[in-house]
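yo, Acid ceramidase is done. seq:
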Amino acid sequence: MYVKIITILIFVTVVSGFVLKPFDGKCVTDAYPPKSSTTVPNLTINLDLPAHDRWKEVAIKYKDSMKSLIGDLKKLVGSVPVVGDLIIKIIDNEFEKIIPTLPAPYADELLGMADYSGINRGEILLYNIFYEVFTVCTSIIAEDKNGELFHARNLDFGLFMGWDLKKNDWAITEALRPMIMNLDFQKNNKTVFKSASFAGYIGVLSGVKPGVISLTLNERFQLKGGFIGIIQWLLGQRTAKWSSFLTRDTLTSATSYQMAKTELSKTELLAPVYFILGGTKSKEGCVITRSLNKTDNIWEMSAAGGWYILETNYDHWLPPLFIDDRRTPATLCMNELTQNNLTMAGLYNVLSTKPVLNKLTTYTALMQAKSGSLETHIQKCPDPCWPW
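structure:
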């Protein structure tokens, strides 16, 4: 698995003309506040509506962007040697048959998204599947001197998905940035939870439930990865949950940090991931390292150095891939920040430091469970910048 990843990353490095340089030790200190142009729109998802109609506003408003992005995804899939054309035919003609097999309310929500946007149902499913296996991120939970917890993350997406030689950027990543939004999921006109998301995506990768938890999902690279789980689902083995659906379910139903930790630890999954979970009380922060059928490790913030816990896409007890080390610079910058100076602005600066900030970064989200706040900003790494 690592050999394949290294080969592809080296190829992108060569064709982009970029020379990988070691982290220079300089942490960004002035990125916050970001420009107003980075602010994302806020939309409401009314959970009192029938599932089919909940995403109507998003589907109509962003249908052209969704169609364009799905077209790019299909081009990438179609370019796969030997089987590309066959996969496209399956997507167009067979994928929609899978949607009714999804659990409620997700099947009806996807059907509604397709109906209101006019996009092929199979393509809507394809669009939602890709987030299960291509999300590369950095997540941090930190506690200040007063015991207040903060949760921040970079969402990096688009690895291996079309390097644009002219723009020196990932094509899918660039297409996603205008589609970023904050969603307020409400019931009875009250917030159930909030999430930072992409138009057309019904799962949750970053979210906060006011007064209860904050939660992010990072991909975990394993040989038995998300593709295996998806294939098992397509073949009829459907006991596992989609990772981003479990995240959303947990944000919907959890009434405590401990309840969320139990649910995220014990539920069978379609893809290996890291759940980064924060609460409202001192030391309520952990990284739950998941494989498909079990939890391999729960790393508590108290064991990670006391005042923060930091996860990229590698098991914390192992070194990161040598050409994808975002952990070391992020850790150095957190230690330079210090607990005494911890603020949301400080976390944003850490996440704006290269290569923590890189060509794959789409947004930075800043959350706090206690207050229920969610602040999301579009990110675009200026050249020279690491491809990942």
